[in-house]
Design brief:
- The structure is a single chain.
- By secondary structure, this protein is an all-beta fold.
- The chain contains one helix and 51 strands.
- Strands 2, 4, 5, 7, 12, 13, 14 and 18 form an eight-stranded antiparallel sheet that branches. Strands 29, 31, 32, 34, 39, 40, 41 and 43 form an eight-stranded antiparallel sheet that branches. Strands 1, 20, 22, 23, 26, 27 and 28 form a seven-stranded mixed sheet that branches.
- Strand 36 and strand 37 form a beta hairpin.
- The N terminus is likely disordered.
Length: 719
């Protein structure tokens, strides 16, 4: 084992490939000469001539004259380049190549070109947000292309990829953030190698030195050293669109791209239907993620899949690097062959409460290097922890502080100056959130649990309750939609509790992909406190909602093989008030208050699994007249399945009782038994009894009682 002490960026950097080092391989960046595998070759030396016989010459497009110009400003040795002057959106300058069968790529390819972007956008509201070097846009939507090579202005990274013919996936590679610098020439290369199911992206600077390299598998692929097949095709999606340069297109579809205009230079664009023999660093296509480890573990096994890309190359150095001191120092372990190109190493035991960061490194016989994760990407992480069983792991009462009273005294991060409100349900203060900025986060491995319970108060404020607001969520790294657990708002003012079931490796007997409990509509209201409680035990998952008086208004349980379907373990921060899927996505942040947030690593609430059905009434705003008499209307629809509505009115404030009876006179459901203000109302019966179970088909009687008024009506349920 050897020790390195250096900063992470130098350890994770890729060895730069000097311009003169071609190792008998083809020189990156041209100038090129067309051969039988050249589908497109544009030199832009004073013309739009295409040197390939497999596709036509390029066609210029500009709404304002002289916005496409051939200039001598370019990469040394390449002659003239093409200036695409989109400094204003009205210019609409771009280039196309008419569609041919050869441009529909489904096998191996190498797509490349020089680009120099002058100005760019940093969000979807700017017409230069995602300028394209090359794209063959989709027939129905431009963003379902055969292939693409582009820049994302907000992250200043390059992205390359293709859309699958099943239209449900888009394998892609994104470079590290800030790889792009405005006003500088770079050469972009996108390789798809069908012999090894690998995509490669390379970024070279004007001197043809490699400044970024990344690779990614597509199905069938290697994950944790195991080959994984995909049930659907991963062939690229072909189309009838022209090839576009400088804009994502397309004029031929209903909604062309509005934010992909390129303002800058392009040169030496070449598309080949083979993998060109470029100097490519070693490929590392997978690295196993280590789950958080208990203190009893004696070592931590890692697998990776790597190989030399070059035709005559082989790997000469293969190492696993890890750090437990925040990347100040790094230890290394040699990777050993496990099976073919799958290698393995073990990180020795580290102290409890250590955060371990790790990556793998490879060097080939041509002196080319690579890492996984790639340069500029964060290493993999896991924690070595001492779990305290049957404990409260988070307890926040927001008494003008963010102190945690749980067993670990966790650190809570707020993303603005805290605002505490005397409108509270636990103690004297609650924490106030606004949808434009506020949320709370806790970073710790202790908040991922197979068995858990959470208990919190929430109050929704503002003009409306936005759907899909996740006011508590613990998710998997980089995939906010795969959760250890969450509660979110639903359309029509409902709530949903869900957890995603673990992968087959951790749940070999799994019978489902998620466990989801969803409340009825209109169960939550603005400006009222609601007590939200949920838990997952080995025998049940239960979701319960209580009103501001702490009375249960709805409960549902799932006991279907819960023990076989444990939750996926979360890896990122626990967040309160926001899903975390995009920093720009402010419309899905909680607008309101939270209080009394508690989380347990066991079923501490011991929630009853008996269902409690929700009964809600709504004022009939269509009735503008003053109510003068008691009324009970005929239900509609009638007969009905699965639910029906009816209207009632009361001329004065008082106790109202509405009940459902079967034809034998046995009460099956009490819909309302509460004080109601004078007015006209609508109420819904969902065909369930007081225990939340569906009742059988048949005739039922519904009855209204208030003071001296009693009236009954018949209705029919047909299952």
């Amino acid at each position: 084992m050897r020790k390195r002490s250096t900063i992470i960026i130098s350890l994770l950097s890729v060895l730069m490939v000097f311009a003169g080092f071609t190792f008998g391989q083809e020189k990156v960046g041209g100038p090129y000469v067309a051969d039988s595998n050249t589908v497109v070759l544009l030199h832009f030396d004073g013309s739009f001539k295409n040197e390939s016989n497999l596709s036509a010459d390029a066609v210029p497009h500009e709404d304002v004259a002289n916005k496409l110009q051939f200039q001598s400003y370019g990469v040394p040795g390449l002659g003239q380049s093409l200036y695409i002057d989109n400094d204003a959106q009205v210019n609409r300058a771009y280039v196309t190549i008419p569609d041919t069968a050869a441009l529909d790529m489904t096998g191996s390819w190498t797509i490349e070109g020089w680009i120099n972007v002058f100005t760019f956008g940093d969000g979807s509201g700017d017409y230069r947000w995602v300028p394209r070097l090359v794209i063959k846009p989709g027939d129905s939507e431009f963003w379902k292309p055969n292939y693409w090579v582009e820049l994302w202005g907000d992250n200043r990274w390059f992205q390359t990829g293709f859309h699958t013919e099943t239209e449900d996936a888009w394998p892609s590679i994104s470079s590290a953030k800030n790889t792009f610098e405005p006003g500088k020439w770079v050469h972009l290369t996108f390789i798809r190698d069908t012999s090894r199911n690998i995509m490669v992206q390379m970024v070279h600077d004007e001197n043809r030195d490699l400044i970024w390299f990344g690779s990614a598998p597509y199905y069938p692929m290697w994950t944790d050293g195991t080959k994984v097949e995909y049930p659907q095709s991963d062939l690229p999606l072909t189309n009838d669109q022209d090839l576009h340069i400088g804009w994502a297109g397309s004029e031929k579809i209903a909604t062309p791209s509005a934010d992909s205009w390129l303002h800058g230079f392009v040169d030496e664009i070449r598309i080949s239907n083979i993998v060109r023999d470029f100097p490519v660093p070693p490929i590392i296509s997978s690295l196993s993620a280590i789950d958080d480890q208990d203190a009893s573990a004696t070592e931590y096994q890692v697998k990776t899949h790597m190989f030399a890309f070059g035709k005559t190359s082989n790997l000469v150095e293969k190492k696993l690097f890890y750090s437990i001191d925040g990347r100040q120092t790094w230890e290394s372990v040699d990777l050993q062959v496990f099976d073919g190109d799958t290698l393995m190493a073990s990180i020795p035991k580290v102290p409890v409460d250590s955060k371990v960061e790790y990556y793998v490194y490879a060097k080939d016989s041509d002196d080319l290097e690579s890492t996984y994760p790639a340069a500029g990407k964060d290493p993999f992480k896991f924690n070595v922890i001492q779990v305290i069983p049957n404990s409260k792991v988070l307890d926040l009462d927001f008494e003008q502080n963010l102190n945690d009273a749980g067993v670990h005294n966790l650190t809570v991060t707020n993303f603005r100056t805290p605002v505490y409100s005397s409108d509270a349900k636990v103690g004297n203060f609650s924490y106030e959130m606004k949808e434009d900025s506020a949320f709370l986060a806790v970073e710790t491995p202790y908040l991922s649990m197979e068995e858990f319970a959470f208990d919190m108060w929430v109050k929704f404020e503002g003009d409306t309750i936005l759907p899909y607001t996740r006011f508590i969520i613990r998710d998997k790294a980089d995939t906010w939609y795969q959760q250890n657990y969450y509660v979110r708002t639903q359309p029509n003012n409902g709530l949903r509790f869900q957890y995603v079931v673990a992968d087959v490796a951790d749940a070999p007997g799994k019978t489902r992909n998620d466990v989801t409990l969803t409340s009825p509509d209109n169960i939550i209201e603005l400006d009222k406190w609601f007590h939200i409680r949920a838990e997952r035990r080995s025998d049940a998952a239960v979701f319960e909602i209580r009103d501001e008086n702490d009375e249960v208004i709805w409960r549902e349980a799932d006991t279907d093989e819960i023990s076989l379907n444990p939750p996926l373990m979360g890896k990122t921060w626990l967040r309160l008030g926001w899903a975390g899927n995009s920093w720009e996505n402010t419309t899905r942040r909680l607008n309101g208050k939270v209080d009394g947030v508690k989380l347990f690593n066991y079923g501490a609430l011991n929630l009853d699994t008996t269902a409690v059905a929700f009964v809600g009434i709504e004022e009939d705003l269509d009735k503008g007249n003053v109510v003068e008499t008691y009324e009970l209307s005929q239900n509609y629809p009638n007969p009905f399945n699965p639910s029906t509505k009816f209207e009632f009115s009361v001329p004065e404030n008082g106790l109202v009782k509405i009940e459902i009876f079967n034809i034998l006179g046995q009460r099956v459901r009490t819909l309302i038994h509460e004080d109601v203000d004078a007015g006209a109302y609508k109420i819904t019966w969902d065909g369930k009894n007081d225990f939340g179970r569906d009742v059988a088909s048949g005739v039922y009687i519904y009855s209204l009682k208030s003071k001296d008024f009693v009236k009954s009506m018949k209705m029919m349920l047909l299952r």
